[in-house]
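seq/struct pair 1
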Amino acid sequence: MLSPPSLLRLGLTCLALACLPASACELRVRWNPDPPYSMRDGQGRLVGMQIELVERTLDRMGCHAVWVELPWARALVELQAGRLDLLPGALRRPEREAYAHWVEQHVAVANRLFVRAGREADFASATRLKEAWHQGLKLGVQIGVVYGADYAELLADPAFRATLTQASARRNLWQMLEIGRVDGVLASEATARWELGELGLAGRIVPTAVVVPHEAAQLMFSRRSVNAALVQRYREASEALERDGTQGRIVRRYLDD
């Protein structure tokens, strides 16, 4: 027979794991082709910085990921409904507080404005998106993505919203930029480096000096499907990865030139 302290510890463990047996401790986690954060290698296996960080963190908890491929806007809907448990790479915004728990990851990569080669001089005097944008400038962005504080502020302006061309896949935006359907694309510096190289566009599409201010992305957990105790266990496991240097080694492997 278990003693009262043992029963208490068992109850707390049950609470932290949402009362599931250890073998069933799994989280449905969003991924989408987004190098170097998430992608498939030559053998079709899921790899990438975010894939490794999530899997190593869950391993420390005795849990595992069930990866679900979803575009960003759809992933937000699924998380809100509780059909998705974890959405990495999100920026914290007031409208998301009602349906998400948050865990910081302390990995910040700048979002930058990319244009066709030869047009970067048009933005030579601008370093912020608010300085670069003007009436008639057609920007390509991903549906549902908030690129940073400047972008969120500009979204309140109907004139700015009217000039946006939105797509669920960023690769479509690169192609639209190449043929002149949009004038610029906002994207992570690290992702652009990978994708433009793969598409053979590295010399034809180039970065400008326009940067959306750095903001570290966080992990969103669905309030409908994940309790606060499990989120705290994830936070503690993630912080342990950061302290022992595991996170830094993974990040450097994917982000260093």
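seq/struct pair 2
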Amino acid sequence: MKKALLLGTTGVAVALAMLAFGFVAGSPQIAKAGTAQPVQAAQPVQTAVADTKIDRTEVEGIIRDYLLKNPEVLLEVQDALEAKQKEEQRLAALGVIKNAKDQIFNSTFDGVVGNPNGKVTIVEFYDYNCGFCKRAIEDMRALTKSDPDLRFVLKEFPILGPDSQKASVVSMAFHMMMPQKYGAFHNALLGGQGRATEATAIKIALSLGADEATLREKMKDASIPQAFSKTYDLANKLQITGTPSYVVGNEVVFGALGQELLAEKIEAAKAAL
């Protein structure tokens, strides 16, 4: 990626240089101070351009030599480009969060842990078979324990294959049946050893008191795939492509940042209230 950015930056530098050389070549001559110049009829600028030939190879060679001697210029341009892209991404996310606030923070399909009436909400997009999500579950537990005003929303985002999708179907069906025990289900499935599957998810649900026949019937509910579709669309608009990812206040946070950095994001969201 960095190589591609650098190559693209080089191309931009060469293009700008060519434009600059073309401008100079096409500019009318300026009289030197103290010399008399005969008055002539105005000539089209095109004449000057036509009379001057620019050697593209020579110009590219000059630019190449300059960049080789000053490679830090490419890094500066790359940093500026990345900063611009991040800012554009941030502004785009702000618009999505504003327009889809209820879908992000208050979807009836999402489980909630911590204080359901907390002033600050953090939304996690997760997959039950995501190793980083499994490690990040401890961050969620610690944060909700230490901050009694934190509302933690769990948004099913199964992107790691059929097992993840089937496990999430069981998860959502269980949430529809026994929302008061969803936190325990989530902790057991995401915090468990081995791969999450439909079978392991059903086993946990039954251990928490779910009726198997009722659970399997709920798993057929048409609203479950519809909820997944909405979440995938929302993630696409927020430019979320991996798990875990978070929405904290008006900010999208990508990756497992760890408890301390997440706590900082939460405090910033509180300050913005």
